[in-house]
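Please, why this fold?
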Amino acid sequence: MIRLAVERQSIIRALTVVSILLLALAVRLYQIELQVVWFDEAYSVWLSRMPPTQVILFTARDVHPPLYYLLLHVWMYCWGDSVVAVRSLSAVIGVATVAMGMRIAHQFGCWRTSAMAGLLLAVFPIGVYYSQETRMYALLGLLMLSALYAVLLWGRQQRQRYLLAYSLLMVAGLYTHYFAILCALSCWLYVLLARGQNGRLLICSGPWWIYNLGIALAFLPWLPTLIEQTGRPNLIAWIAAVTPMTVPLAFLRAFTLDTNMAGAILLAVAFSLTLLAGATRLWSRDHALSRPGSMLVIYCFIPVLATWLVSSVKPLFMERYLLFALLGLPILLASALAELRQRWRVLLLVLCVFFEAAGMVNLYSRQFNLRGGSEWVDNRLDYVMAQVNSRWLQGDALLADDRVWSLTIDFYNKTGTAPLVYKPYYTDPAIALYPRVAQRVVNDPRTLEHRYKRVWWVTSGPVTEIERTMMRNWVSLAAISKGDSRALLFAMPDQAASRD
C-alpha cells in the first residue's frame, strides 16, 4: 500500500510538472508572431545570418557579446528565419527557465514550493514578454538561474563538479550580456556569508578562487573589446535617469507590464514592501550553514539595487538588462508563501496570480511598450511590407527610411531585391567590414530617378521633409498604410513622361 501511494504521488507530481511546462510553452507561443519585429530583433536576425567569424567581428563593433547571435545562427540554420522561427528560440529557453526555477525552489522547501514557483514563473509577464523576443535576455536569465542553482548545490555539498558547472555558465553569461557580472557579484556576496559542511566560510575554499580565476581568464580575450565599447560616446545616452521610484515601478511592471494605472505609485510601493517582507522572512529563517535563502534574496535584489545606485551617476537601469534578477522574484514569493498557514498561503497565491493575469492581459492586448519608445506600439510594417511584396514589379526599387525602421523593413522584405537605405549623413562604421553596405545607401533620393522605373518609400511615424519632397516631385501611384506605417509608390519622372 505504501509503495502504491508513493508511486501515485510520483505520477501526480510528474503530471503537475508537465502541466506547468506545457502552460509555460503555450503562453509563450500564443501570439508570438503578432507583434512586429522591432529594430533590435531585426538586427539580431540580420547579424545572425552572417558566418560565425563575421558575427564575432561585427559584435566587437557593437554593444553586446556574440554568444546569443552565434546560437541564433545555428537555430536559424535548423529552423529558418520566419518570425515564429527566430522568436521560438527564446520561447524554448523561457520554458527551460521555468523548469530551472522549479529546481531552485525545491532547494528552499517541499514539493509544494516548487509547484507554486513553477506556476508563478510560467505566467510571469515580463518573463513571457522576453520569451517572445529575438534578443539575448531570456538566454541570460536561464544561464544565470542555472549558475545560481550550481552555486547552491556547491554550497551544500562542496563538490567541484558544481563549481565547474558554475564556471561554464558564468563564462557563457558574460559572453551573452555584460550584466552577468552582477550575478557573479551576487554569488561572491553569498560565498562571503555561507559556510560549508565543515563550518568554514565558503570564501576560504581554494577551488572557489581557482574556478573564478578560470572565469576571468576565459573572458580575458574579450576584455579589450569591452573596454573599447565602454569608451564610445553616446553608447547609453538614450537610457533615462533613475528616480527614487524606479525600482518599485520596475518590480510592479515585472508582474503587470503596466505602471500607468491609477494609483500606480502607491501600488508599486505596496508591492515592493510585500516583496521585502517575503525576502526578510526568507532571510530570517535561513539557519542552514549553506544559507540558500540568503542566496536567493541577494540574487533578486543586489543586481537591481547596484544598477540603480550606479545609474544615479551613469544611467544603466533597464528592466530587460535585469531580467535574470527579476526572474528570481516568483521563486522568492513561492518560498515565502510556503511557510505561511494554508489560508494565508492560498489567499496570497491567488493575489499573485491575479496580478500576473492582469499582466498577461496587457501582454496580449499589446497596449504597452517596454522598448524605450512609443513608436513600436502601433507599428505595422509587417502588413505594409506584405502588400509591397505582392505588388512588386521588375525594375522597382525599395527605399527604406533609416530612422529606426530599415532593418525591420529588410526583415519583412521578400521581393528578392535588397532594400536601399535613406541616410542623409552616412557614417556607419559597418562599412569597414562590409563595403557593400555603402552601395545600398542613398543620400539623395533624386539619384534614383534614372536608375529605376518605380520607387517604394517605406517608413513609419511622422511625415518627414524628404517624404514631402518626394510627393511634390514624383508621381504618386499608390499608398498603403496600417497603424503608423506606410508605403508610398512613386513613378520616376522619366517614366511618367514617357507614359504621357
Remarks:
- Residues 429-436 have pLDDT under 50 and may be disordered.
- The chain is about 60% helix and 5% strand.
- The chain has two domains: 2-370, 378-499.
- The domain at 378-499 is CATH 3.40.50 (Rossmann fold).
